[in-house]
Each structure stands twice: as structure tokens, then as C-alpha cells.
Specification:
This protein is α+β, with helices and mostly antiparallel strands and about 130 residues long. It has 3 helices and 5 strands; from the N terminus they run E-H-H-E-E-H-E-E. A 5-stranded antiparallel sheet has the order 1-2-3-5-4, with helices on one face. This is Anti-sigma regulatory factor.
């Protein structure tokens, strides 16, 4: 847990749908440990699934990198991969629409051939009814 600093968890997985359960589990655990509601935990899990799904078919080197930054009450997740030159996710697609609807913010950025999808969520004090 954070003591006034940002805690960071890093994870590399093969760019294969069989491994997406790993970052989904990690984000669920981190969100639960940081007082996210059950609904918010589920939303984050789905958002991480969508971010991975967008990058999986484009990961040139066959690897997805996931970075989880914990700074209560915020949780920031960066999913990245080396992608073909000029490729960006279709922000009009159903997957991107789902992703952006589930989190506080979402953005995609390419630096040196590596595309990073960043999602941010903030824990709330009470469960929605």
C-alpha cells in the first residue's frame, strides 16, 4: 500500500488471449486492496480486457506490457505493445466505446513504435445501489 508515494506493479505477458486473465486478475486484486467498490472493480477488469483486446492482434513482438500505478484513491493502468508503424486504435469502435465508458479517463499514445493505452479510475467511498 502507498505511504505517500506511488506504488508500481509491472507485468509482461504473451500477446495471446489465453493470458489476458492475468492482468485482469491483477487489476481486480489491486482495486480491491485500494477500496474500490465491487462495481468499480468489475468495470476496471472489463476495461483492462478491452485495452488488451485492442492491442493483442497488433503486438508485433508478441508481448503486452502492463503497468499498474497505485496512488490511492487513484489507480492508473498502462497497457502497451510494439505496433505496426502508424497503427492506432479505432476510437469509434465498440471496444473503445466500452473502454471509455467504464473508467474515469482513457487515452492512447504512440511513442517510438510502442502504443500505450492508459486508463485511470478513482475509488469512491460507497457502493452504488
Amino acid at each position: 500500500m502507498s505511504n505517500g508515494r506511488v506504488d508500481e506493479v509491472r507485468l509482461s505477458i504473451p500477446a495471446d488471449g489465453a493470458y489476458v486473465a492475468v492482468p485482469r486478475s491483477v487489476v481486480g486484486n489491486l482495486a480491491a486492496r485500494n477500496d474500490f467498490t465491487l462495481d468499480a472493480i468489475d468495470d476496471l477488469r472489463i476495461a483492462v480486457d478491452e485495452a488488451c483486446a485492442l492491442l493483442l492482434p497488433e503486438a508485433v513482438d508478441g508481448v503486452l506490457e502492463c503497468v499498474f500505478l497505485i496512488e490511492p484513491p487513484k489507480l492508473l493502468v498502462r497497457v502497451s505493445a510494439v505496433v505496426p508503424n502508424g497503427w492506432t486504435p479505432d476510437t469509434d469502435s465498440f471496444g473503445w466505446t466500452v473502454l471509455t465508458a467504464l473508467v474515469e479517463s482513457a487515452a492512447a499514445e504512440t511513442i517510438d513504435g510502442r502504443l500505450t493505452i492508459t486508463v485511470t479510475a478513482t475509488a469512491t467511498a460507497t457502493e452504488s445501489l
